[in-house]
User: Fold this.
Amino acid sequence: MPQPIETPQDGPGPASSPGRGLIRDLLIASAGGLAVLVVGLSAMSLGWIGDKGTDAPATPRAAREAAYFQPPPRSAIPDGPDGEAIRRGEALFMNTPANAAAFTGNSLSCVNCHLDGGRRANASPMWSAWGLYPMFRAKNGRINTMEDRIMGCFTFSMNAQASSSGGPPPAGHDIYRDLQAYMHYLATGAPSGVEMAGGGYPKVDLPSQGYDPRRGAGVYATNCALCHGEDGQGRTNANGQPVFPPLWGPQSYNWGAGMARINTAAAFIKTNMPLGQTGRLSDQEAWDVAAFINSHERPRDPRQTGTVQENARRNHTGGKTFYGKVVDGRLLGGGVR
Amino acid sequence: MDPGAQIYASACSTCHQPNGAGVRGAVPPLGDPAFSDPTVLVAIILRGVEGPVRVGRVTYDGAMPGFSGVLTDAEIAQVASHVSRAWGDGGAPIDSAVVARARAKAAGAGPWKGGQAMAGLSPALAPQPAWTGPAPWAADPAVLTLINEGRGEALACSGCHGPQGQGGDPIPRLSGLPSAYIAAQLDAFASGRRSNDQMSGVARALSPAERQALGDYYGRQSAPSTATPSLGGDRQAGARLALQGDWSRDIPACFACHGPSGFGGGPRLPALAAQQPAYTAAQLAAWASGKRTGDPGNLMGDVARRLSEADRLALADYLAGLPSNPAAARKDRR
Assistant:
């Protein structure tokens, strides 16, 4: 079976966002010195549980807060009409399918990829994105306003083509205003026009062995399936409420999304997955598992008009992708509903 | 913050969402006029509801826990008044005496069986879909014997974990924990990977098939909560950690893994809601000190090591104050 295994000779694809992520190492460097405390539980005095607890180290927080820009906390959202707009934006960001019901074609929310409500450094936080727009983007070859950018997120990451309206919110829609009110709020005090430490997803260089979805399958089974499911469809609870988001298939991002590029997914995964375990995967594992999840079928690229191959030549030359390539004897990119 | 809004944030927002919009296809939005009638609102909050309910033009088929065991009359009045003010008709605040009367009427009744059972509360609710109960399920008599009578070293589970597996501090609640998780813990006690004076001998005396069967049994139970917050922890701080985490310390929201309301996140991710608080706090401390290990991928150990003692008490008390999962017997959809 033909297996596209690329090696560094063809050079790493363009970064998902220009060179960022300088101070990530601090996160790992600061996990030392555990202070030991005795836990004073009532149950222990009964003799049931004779255990010593450890208290978490007290220093890392301060160290990290100095390292990255700190957006204002949730509790500081003001009252009044501007506060209401910020809260509507936050609700859109956290629970997109319910609050932008007519324009969201899958079960994802913005927060699934921009962690901690768009606050988390190195998870493409909104406080760093805010000041960068308007910006020239190669994806469409023109200056993009923040509204254009968010429209792109709906079109690709939220697969708006499968929503009840069949597309993203039309230009000028209140959804854009509210989301921007929220981003503007998160960026309170942030500089504009400069790339900030912790912005974007820190790029991961293509490792010596390239990337391989077959190796990635093993990484997936060990590190991801517990939450995202053996079948990559995520999990919902008994009420049907999402617990873990899907990684491929009809409810995932579509072939046009940034996350469908292997280099971008590797960057996201390396710093953010498994949840709560930054730095657990090697660069090699991150690339391989990114290749694995992006070697599965997902909703079609909404820009496709002719064949998959034509669209591959027109829109998929920039990054590392399996779009329009044959994996396990199957041409990828045809889409699923 | 208004006390009703605070109760809403910690008890209802995991499902109905902070802005009351619900979850598409899963949890109804609040503010539907028929359900904003104070009688209906209070009746639902007290007893919970499961099975098909029509809200507006959409029929939901989920399960909502009742709060009669975990909220006082005054608290239910406050949260109902908040819901009505924020999304409903905004009528006069609901009085706790109204809740007390409804509670007396509801005594002993389980969750409302779908919208049809509630239809008598208000004419505006009609029409409601018919109730179809879950498929009947009979416990294996051999498992019931193990639970209630035991066998040699395998002492009767009910003697320590309570007749319905509801636990009694500091012995854990088993009711509604995922079957695979229970079986895995029994395996771990048997092999020595997890050790406990009471449990190790019990687990060693059970065959692997019996461990699985006991997991299947307890995994289907939905005993009401018997836990009460008792450690003096800061429950508001616990709610923040459970719902949002504290990413400045690399702590994800507990509910990101343990399910949106702490009802469990998958076969290996146990429910935390309604767990006995001293047990919860002790387990978190055991991970932090390295005494409990063996969790898949160190996912829990890595989180627990970042918690302080105050966090552990706050979390344990917050979780103990939540209702138990009413829908343990219903299968996770995916």
In short: Residues 1-62 of chain A have pLDDT under 50 and may be disordered.
